[in-house]
Amino acid sequence: MKARVYITLKKSVLDPQGETVKHALASLGFNSIEEVRMGKYVELNLNTASKKQAEQKVQQMCEQLLANPVIEEFRYEVISR
Amino acid sequence: MKARVYITLKKSVLDPQGETVKHALASLGFNSIEEVRMGKYVELNLNTASKKQAEQKVQQMCEQLLANPVIEEFRYEVISR
User: What is the CATH number of domain B2-79?
Assistant: First the structure.
């Protein structure tokens, strides 16, 4: 199974990296940008029997290691190969 | 318009961060993982007239700033709000 995990800062958390990227893009002439939010993207290859099992594992991985639940939220998708 | 950009290392490029995450997950008991690849995820809010125009802008942003074309590849999607 292949899993894709998207980790983003919660809306209420300031994102200085995103602000910096926004200003860098503006200085390159991209003036139509309202907001930039930076996140993490994780691709996992899993050796599990079923899609459901893979989804459970990925949920646990996110809760235990990949995401910081205090400031981040995550979503994921599992694709059968 | 809302754009989501996914930036990943090229397949031929070593990903030590992904290897480290893989080992950390293994030490937590997740043994069914074959590979972990870390990437970046960028959410952009754009003030453009059309979806096509937004896609052109995002393509340019990726080429000029967001991704390093030597070692990274990118894909993106633009969603009308």
Answer: 3.30.1280.10
